[in-house]
Amino acid sequence: MEGRLAIRYRSGRWENAAMSRSDVPIRAFGHAIRIDLSQTPPEVPAEIARLWARCADPRPPQDAETITVRYVPPTEVTARGQVTQDGATVVEYARVEDLPYELSRTVTLTALRAVAGRHVLLHAAGLHDEATDRFLALVAPTGTGKTTACRVLGRSFGYVTDETVCLTDDGTAVPYPKPLSVVRDPQRPFDKDEHSPDELGLGPTPAAPRLGALVVLRRDPSIERPRLIPLGVLEAVAAVIPESSGARVTHHSLRRLAEVVTTGPGPHRLEYRDIAECVELLRAHLRTAGAPPPDARPWEHVPPVGSQDEGLSTDVDAAPGPVRTVDPDPGPVPPPEVPVTRAPYVDALTADGQALVLQQDRVVHLHGLAALAWFLLGDPMDRCALATEIRTDLGNHPDADALVAAAVAELWSAGLLTTAARR
Fold first, then answer.
1. Are 97 and 9 in contact (CB under 8 A)?
2. What are phi and psi of 275, to 5 degrees?
3. Is residue 92 a contact partner of residue 39, using CB atoms and an 8 Å limit?
4. Rounded Cα distance, 24 and 16, in Å
5. Model confidence over 167-218: pLDDT tens digits?
6. Which among 70, 171, 299, 324 counts the fewest CB atoms within 10 Å?
7. Cα(126)–Cα(204) distance, integer angstroms
């Protein structure tokens, strides 16, 4: 069956038919992967090697993780092409034009699982400024402009990645200069062609650049001129959390995200109509003076008390749910005389009278009195003691008891509190 396939890739770039069948060894986020193409037509390895040339591993280790590629009839191919058999990863394809993108997705997911919990992983494009050896992280959800930004801005900057920025503890990146995944038809966003960065004329990939700034992308056709809007720390972290991988399996993940977003000039949102108009704006932003000293950070880390592993998930594939506020329907709460305290959580931040709390299944953004009450309830208190503490912080109020009761009810309904006995 395989010999009867139409082998020529749809764009006519699968060449070098004389190349022998071979593996393609690469590095993704530093993780060694061997792409086994022994079950594909002879034209395939040459094209895959060309697409992944910037990720090529010249000295692959013997224990590199293997991804095997094989053809199956159209009636047997699995959803989105990836299966796992006896612990091994297999990419199945029925149409040869779909193989490069299915392989790209599988390589990325395989590498993410390997490094999750050890590095900060952001769904972002990375563009490098050679003059400063620093790079710009452009964070955005899938299908909202990262790859387009790389294709356009990458001719003026160096290319770090169009998919995931991988940051080590010291703020340097492990580049992932994968092929760029370009949508064929906007009506079918998951059908994509792969293009090598060299083919698109993108700038060189640096070895280990330092993060210079983080920007959240927002395309708006009504904007006449591009602009950078400063963001608060919690606002920025809340925007970045849905675009992070491994946050639930990473110790102090919100603290690490806060350190990332406050790098350089601090977090900003780029609002633009055409990304081509943003080259000089972003270049100037990236070259802005460095971050303020640590004692000037406008946020506070509130890690959970107890075991460092408490609240951490063991599922590296699961992402936190969307950032949300508390449920407006408070539901039943314990009587006022029963002490309550924080329920188990993974990590938390406070800033500007707000709190951001990461639990295993969600992230909750608290404001005002609810944020203060949650912070104070690190120690168990009944309603009366909590009201006394809040009066100490904010002063007296004629409706203090009712306001505190409402804040406790909101926190209880959000699953952020538990009784001291249950804790």
1. yes
2. -65, -25
3. no
4. 15
5. 998 889 999 999 999 988 777 777 889 999 999 999 999 999 999 999 999 9
6. 324
7. 12
